[in-house]
Amino acid sequence: MDSAAGTTTAAPLRIGLLGTGPWARNTQAPALAAHPGVELSGVWGRRAEAADTLATAHGTRAYTGEEGIDALLEASDAVAFALPPDVQAPLAVRAARAGRHILMDKPVATTVEGAVAVADAVAEAGVASIVFCTLRFAPETAAWIAEQAAVDGWFTARAQWLGSLYAEGSTSEYADSPWRREKGGLWDVGPHALSVLIPVLGDVEHLTAAPGPADTTHLILRHSSGASSTVTLGLSAPPGASGVEIEFRGEHGTASAPGWDGAETAFRGAVDALAETVRTGVPHACDARFGRHLTELLVAAETQARA
After folding, report:
1. With 0-12 CB in 10 A as exposed, 13-18 as middle and 19+ as buried, what is 147?
2. 62/45 Cα distance (integer angstroms)
């Protein structure tokens, strides 16, 4: 009991982190360690040295190996994932079955079977889940998406998300990610674009995909509202051509997405959303079920583009 305020102070949500790569080091671990409502309960890594280094930097315990996963789950109320999607998926199932809430990175998995297994495990266990799609949780863009979803009469939309991760001269440490290099922009940044378009225009009822230069993919989508959208995704654009643009056009004019204040701030928003879902039991719109749907759309798009 807080004697000054006369109210009960809630215990912090104990969240363990699975993963030690650049995304864990640069975004997730700092956000979790600094969050006032969270206790970073530990860091698990496939390499003991990396787990020790990251855990020490944030004043928590390191775990490794199979037994380390079980120990971290035992020490946590929830776990966050900074792992390749097809490593993440079976571990998310394992965590859910252990009764732990899960904060996943996008995409949940790169196979429909993997994504379905995660969504089913979450539903069966009754745990909370969040899939971190940056623009759904960055304060600036989250508010903007909600505003556009409240407006009727959208006619069409355009989303372009082009990175230069694999452009000549790039020194980004994220370019070393094997899954990202194999799957390209469709899978890496496609979830971000879809997570904005779907809540405003409705579910995707028809999808057409075609390849562009390098890893670029072009999508044409027909939504349940009757509106259509076009999407261009890639990680190999020349630096001068890279950038993010999302625009809706309809009866009331044009609306363009604002900028946002970095991934760490957005990730803190995702942590807040997970905590709210844990507290209320009300599922978030960007949960494991939505993650499953994103994977279904991306598999369909990849199949068409490769054909």
Report:
1. exposed
2. 8
DSSP state for residue 175 in the 8-state scheme:
G
**Nearest-angstrom CA–CA distance, 92 and 129:** 10
Where do runs of H (alpha helix) occur along the chain?
22-23, 29-34, 48-57, 65-74, 85-97, 112-125, 134-137, 139-149, 178-188, 190-201, 262-280, 288-306
pTM to 2 decimal places: 0.94
Pairing mode, strands 228-234 and 101-105: unpaired
293 CA to centre of own chain: 13
CA-closest candidate to residue 35, choices 61, 53, 17, 51 = 17
What does each C-alpha distance from 114 to 117, 161, 295 come to in angstroms?
A: 5, 26, 9
Q: What is the DSSP string of 198-261?
A: HHHH--EEEEEEEE-STT-EEEEEEETTS-EEEEEEES---GGG-EEEEEEEETTEEEEPPP--
Residues 93-121: tens digit of each pLDDT: 999 999 999 999 999 999 999 999 999 99
Phi, psi for residue 30 in degrees, rounded to 5: -60, -40
Question: For the chain, how far is it from start to end, CA to CA, in angstroms?
Answer: 63
User: Would you mind telling me the total number of residues written for the chain in this entry?
Assistant: 307
208-248 pLDDT, tens digit per residue, is 999 999 999 999 999 999 999 999 999 999 999 999 999 99
Q: Is 215 exposed, middle or buried (0-12, 13-18, 19+ CB in 10 A)?
A: buried
Strands 62-64 and 38-45: parallel
Per-residue tokens: 54 = 């990251």
